[in-house]
């Protein structure tokens, strides 16, 4: 999943980029409306996070141009807090959702997840990985159609691995992701969680390999 952030407040953009990358997204940033147009023309994105108050060209203009090209790219607009007129105008121009500044990163992340799910045509909520299928809304994993019992921690881990299937995920990344829920998680605990998850996935031929000294990787299924 690739996200474009168009935001001229660099501190805010950096924070968003950091948080979204940590959730497994690829994130690019631009700081004005003209650059946003160029980036949208040159690349395929899965989501646009668009500040309304952009220099050179406002977020409204970027949005109008995008929808004028018949693009269905999901767009989340960032507006001033309580600026009802901005939200209404943005939604009328084709934005899918909005957030008033300042906002909590956790809320932004939840809306991004919802929008990127919606953006996937066809079966928006189901991820398939070999014998494994994962329902992102119900948060239910199945192996060969049979539900498998996973703890909340194991589900959190599985989501990270599925977002980065075939890529290495470091222990630090896993720790920081799980710590978002306000709990300290030690590196040893991560090893235990991964071990348990691995045992539950193995019967379906889904393997999480250890990259010695670095972290783990969910191997791509043979058929993909
Ligand atoms: Ca701005």
H/E topology pattern:
EHEHEHEHEHEEEEHEHHEE
Broad shape: elongated
CATH class of the largest domain: Alpha Beta
**Integer-rounded radius of gyration:** 19 Å
User: Which class best fits the helix and strand makeup?
Assistant: alpha/beta
CATH arch. level architecture of the largest domain: 3-Layer(aba) Sandwich
Number of helices: 8
Low-pLDDT runs:
119-123
Q: How would you state the average pLDDT, rounded?
A: 86
**What is the CATH homologous superfamily assignment of the largest domain?**
Response regulator
Strand order of the largest sheet: 2-1-3-4-5
Span of the ends, CA to CA: 17 Å
The domain count comes to 2
Q: What is the third-level CATH name, the topology of the largest domain?
A: Rossmann fold
Number of strands: 12
What compounds are bound to the protein? calcium ion
- Helical percentage: 40-55%
Characterization of the model:
This protein is an alpha/beta fold and 224 residues long. The protein has 2 domains: 2-118, Rossmann fold, CATH 3.40.50; 126-218, Arc Repressor Mutant, subunit A (Orthogonal Bundle). It is 42% helix and 23% strand. It is built from 8 helices and 12 strands. The protein has a 5-stranded parallel beta sheet, sandwiched between helices. A 4-stranded antiparallel beta sheet has the order 6-7-8-9, with no helix packed on it. A 3-stranded antiparallel beta sheet has the order 10-12-11. It is elongated, with a radius of gyration of 19 Å. Mean pLDDT is 86; it is low at 119-123. Bound molecules: calcium ion. The site of calcium ion (CA) has 5 residues, from loops.
